[in-house]
Amino acid sequence: MRSRLKLFIPLVLFAILALFLFRGLGLDPKEMPSALIDQPLPEFSLPELGGASNLSRADVIGQVGLLNVWATWCVACRVEHPYLLELAGQGVPIFGLNYKDDDRGASEWLVELGNPYEFNIVDREGTLGLDLGVYGAPETYLLDAQGVIRFRHVGIVDQNVWATILQPLYQSLQAEMPVQ
Questions:
Q1: Helix, strand, or coil (residue 54)
Q2: Which of 79, 139, 140, 156 could form a disulfide with 69 if both were Cys (CB 3.0 to 4.6 A apart)?
């Protein structure tokens, strides 16, 4: 009898493991908070796409804006891109982080689809992405004028996400800026 019960041990362990996996699959990465909220954007020195100089954290300081992680291999980025062009047309500063991509392909993408970005940081190896805790593309970080990360959105920024989440936060941060 005891030897027969031992046969069920692997089955019970499998059931327990399956339960943990099933519960874990129910997590929504969009709801995973970033450890960097209310922390300064990490220091970096990376090349500018199509430029001869390096960019750093200092280049994003001075205005409230969005840091958008994108890549040409990202299908969702192509879906998101027209709305980013619309936001840029409304005067919203957007800084691009071209993530683990090919420079030539990224430059061609921007020529073909339009360029909503103030500039693009080239993160070929994903070092800044790693520092940010990027899960993939697209991801968008809302930065205050001091370069502090105030919000992180995983997934496509569209009109609904902008109107219900990002725009109110963006406007609130703009209202906090001193009048010049």
A1: strand
A2: 139
Residue 130: other Cβ atoms inside 10 A: 11
Tell me: the pLDDT tens digits for 96-149?
A: 999 999 999 999 999 999 999 999 999 999 999 999 999 899 999 999 999 999
The H-or-E segment that residue 153 falls in is: strand 149-154
Residue 173 DSSP code: H
Determine if residue 93 is left, alpha or beta; phi over 0 gives left, psi from -120 to 50 gives alpha, anything else beta: beta
Amino acid letter at 123? D
How do the domains of the chain map onto residue ranges? 32-176
Task: Give residues with Cβ within 8 angstroms of 97, minimum separation 6.
Answer: 67, 68, 69, 70, 120, 121, 123, 128, 129
| 32-176: CATH number | 3.40.30.10
Alpha-carbon distance 151 to 38, whole Å?
8
